[in-house]
Every structure is written in structure tokens, then in C-alpha cells.
Amino acid sequence: MAKPRILVAQAIFPETVERLAQHFEVQANQDDVRWSPAELARQLADKDGALTTGAQRIDAALLAACPRLRVVANMAVGYNNFDVAAMTAAGVQGTNTPDVLTDTTADFGFALLMAAARRITEGERYLRAGQWKDWRYDLLAGSEVHGSTLGIIGMGRIGQGIARRAAHGFGMEVLYHNRTRLPPALEAECKARHVGKDVLLANADHVVLVLPYTPDNHHTIGAQELARMKPTATLVNIARGGIVDEAALAAALREGRLAAAGLDVFEGEPAVHPDLLTLPNVVLTPHIASATVATRRAMANLAADNLIAFFDGRGPLTPVNQ
Ligand code: DGY
Predict the structure, then answer these.
(1) Is the pTM of this model over 0.90?
(2) Does ligand 1 come within 6 angstroms of the Cβ of 241?
């Protein structure tokens, strides 16, 4: 029987491609070139399955051009690049990579919070530019992290990981906002209190965004929400860029209505809003919250495992549509 044909749509570990090749006929884009939607459709037209990252949009137009396609394994926990309803209607299974990146991503959320609140990258730029002349009482003085109040918007696995770090490691009071409230035992373990979004924004010294991106929460943090936050506060986004109105955020940072921000994700990434690039009080990183070698390997392996299990008839391990 002919092996299923799989497209690896963006570069991944060569050993993952080799592993897939033991099960499938594999075509892999191992170049550092992101395919246009038209090129992706052309490459996928004769494939039975695909391994994608968050950079490939799987929607009705693409599915119409790919009649053989049966499964798409995303190497990411977020799958806002999938039109899940269109995939379900077309009989295409989607999968993601939850759990394997939870702690690594929570670590990074905390790192961005520390870097922004304590002005770490600003200090490094200052030192490298030869501006450091002497110790000064107010040199790059930032905001306190330990013992402060953290607001977490989106309390899935990664949000819970950040809450544990904050409460247990840094003695922070943790407020969270989520569509559904956590069971009491989990709330107690995370030492986190469920509050409305406005209460969270008004009371938090630092706010971390960890919610999945959907059309409903586009620009969930805009001018109004930023105006509710303390002017001394820090905003961290490790979720998806579209959740924050970047122009409104840049204005708040520029005008001193918000002290600092740490952003790992951007609405038009890899492009970054030009206003953000001019500001000293925002830490900018290129979507690397899950980027440790071990975690990226685990994500690639889980995406491959999903394809193997699907075509073995065992069913996907971590489906996003049923
Ligand atoms: C995810 O897994 O969703 C991360 O953003 C990595 O792309």
C-alpha cells in the first residue's frame, strides 16, 4: 500500500523529518523561507497530511485546493492559524502540542516580566553604549516584582504555571481572569483569586496575557483597558499579538501611562509595530517563549506522533477538533 504523503511546511529538526520518513512519503520545506498561502496550497494539493507551525493558515480556501488532506499537526499549542470549523466541515483533523511546553513557556513569561519591570535589557543597552559612568541611586530603577500583585488573563496550563511561580517563588498576590473559574483545589494550589477583568487591570502591578487568540478577543487590551491599569504597571504578552492593540500600547508607554511592557508576540509578526521599536521601556523578543532545545524537540516529536497515530488508525493524541 502506498505510504501517505506528508508535507512539513516549515523547517523542523532534521531527525523529526527522518522519523516521519520511516512512516510516510515526506516533502519538507527545510529552507528559511515562509511560503505564501498560494505556494502552501500548491505544495499541499497532493498531500494527505501536514506538519505546520503557527505560520501557516489552514482555512476554507486552502482546504478547497487540497482535497486529499486529512490531518494537519500544528507544532504549537496555539492553533489560531486553523479555521477549526472549516477543517471539521472538510473532514480534516487538526492537532496541537499542549503540555510539553507549559513550564518552559511559563518560565519565559516570568523572564519577560522580570526583564521589563527591572529594566534589564534597557540596562544592557545602556552599558554596551558606554553610557555607564558611575553608581547612581536612581539608575534604571524599576518596579518591584516580589510581593507585588500579578494579574493573569487566561488561566490555562501556562497561566497556572505562571501563577505557581509568582505565588510560591515570589510571594506575589495572584489575581486571574478566565472564562471559567478554576476548581477550588486548583485555585488553592496556584494561590490565585478569580476576579473580573476590570478589577484585575485596576489592581495588578503587572499583567500577563496567556489566553488563546480568537476573533472574539482581538484587541482585548486596547486604549480603554490600558487606561484602567496603574501607570507603574507592566504588561507582558506571551499569547498572540492580536490580543493587544499595539498602537494604543505604544502610546501608553510613550506617554508614561504604563511603565513597561514585555512582548514575545506581535500582530503582524515577524513585522513589529514601528512605534514599539523606538521605545526604551518595552522588551521585544521574537516569539521564543517555548524555545528551549528540549521543548522544541518535544513539540516536534508530539506533532510527528500525532501524524503517525492518525495514519495508524489509533486516532490523534492531542486533537483540537473531534
Ligand atoms: C505555541 O505553542 O502556541 C507557541 O506560541 C509557539 O509557537
Answers:
(1) yes
(2) no
- By most ligand atoms within 8 Å of CB, the mutation choice from 10, 82, 101, 211 for ligand 1 is 101
ipTM of the complex model? 0.95
Domain ranges of the chain: 5-100+293-312, 102-284
Which residue owns the Cα nearest ligand 1 atom 1?
76
Q: Residue 242 and residue 44: Cα distance in Å, rounded? A: 27
**Residue 77 CB less than 6 A away from ligand 1:** yes
Q: Ligand 1: distance of its center to the CA of 1 in Å? A: 35
| Euclidean distance between CA atoms 311 and 71, whole angstroms | 9
Amino acid at 171: G
Q: What homologous superfamily is domain 102-284 in, according to CATH? A: NAD(P)-binding Rossmann-like Domain (3.40.50.720)
Query: Digits of tens for pLDDT over the chain (322 positions)?
Result: 899 999 999 999 999 999 999 999 999 998 888 899 999 999 999 999 999 999 999 999 999 999 999 999 999 999 999 999 999 999 999 999 999 999 999 999 999 999 999 999 999 999 999 999 999 999 999 999 999 999 999 999 999 999 999 999 999 999 999 999 999 999 999 999 999 999 999 999 999 999 999 999 999 999 999 999 999 999 999 999 999 999 999 999 999 999 999 999 999 999 999 999 999 999 999 999 999 999 999 999 999 999 999 999 999 999 999 7
Task: Measure Cα distances from 214 to 80, 127, 169 in Å.
Answer: 7, 41, 31
Specify the fold of 5-100+293-312: Rossmann fold (3.40.50)
On the question of a common fold for 5-100+293-312 and 102-284, the answer reads: yes
Q: Whose CA is nearest to atom 6 of ligand 1?
A: 76
Residues with catalytic function: 240, 269, 287
Q: Residue 223: CB partners within 8 Å, gap ≥ 6?
A: 245, 248, 251, 252
Distance 289 CA to ligand 1 centre (A): 8
